[in-house]
Amino acid sequence: xxxxxxxxxxxxxxxxxxxxxxxxxxxxxxxxxxxxxxxxxxxxxxxxxxxxxxxxxxxxxxxxxxxxxxxxxxxxxxxxxxxxxxxxxxxxxxxxxxxxxxxxxxxxxxxxxxxxxxxxxxxxxxxxxxxxxxxxxxxxxxxxxxxxxxxxxxxxxxxxxxxxxxxxxxxxxxxxxxxxxxxxxxxxxxxxxxxxxxxxxxxxxxxxxxxxxxxxxxxxxxxxxxxxxxxxxxxxxxxxxxxxxxxxxxxxxx
Length: 254
Prior knowledge:
Layout: E1 13-21, H1 24-36, E2 41-47, E3 50-56, E4 62-67, E5 93-101, H2 104-113, E6 118-124, E7 130-135, E8 144-149, E9 166-170, H3 173-185, E10 194-195, E11 200-205, E12 211-216, H4 246-253
Parallel strand pairs: 1-4, 5-8, 9-12
Antiparallel strand pairs: 1-5, 2-3, 3-4, 6-7, 7-8, 10-11, 11-12
């Protein structure tokens, strides 16, 4: 996206997205790779009793890498194979999202009551920020949400390098309808359930005005006709209303 301003740091924001890799050796590998590509990083740090490598990409998007949970099994992950990154150092999945917010207990309540995430710990994070950590308690794909208490910053200005929303999953369409009913009962505005053709989604702004999406894990496999081993082999999928512009869109992507 061009022609819009860069993101300006602030609260009421998705502060950072952290991905998981296999081992400490993987973090060492990625630190060297970031340096080779002249990407800003903060070295390998200690955070929440784990190793963490924070960095910003060329657009200033705040990202990071950490080591997968010890209980997670390798066969649960399907890393993308590339010619230049050893498979043992591949990025496996999203580990956690960090939200920078002035009222963490309000977001904590929604995560616990609506999405059934569990508060697992509290800590003092970077810049002495009080941080509440919630987890999905999964042994297959363990993930966390970190609520960073920051009531001194001004709200973030969204722009290039910012993260627009965070998506959570619903097992089925019936589960998604239950989430919609919960929001209605608590007088929280939402988008209503949207048909995304491949899946269905619901959007709402939680207590600190961060946009949450809940999307169904069930997918329309009639649309996903092909079963390629390599994600790069999938043809470009466009929703029905954009098919008329396929030629122009494919040309611009190239």
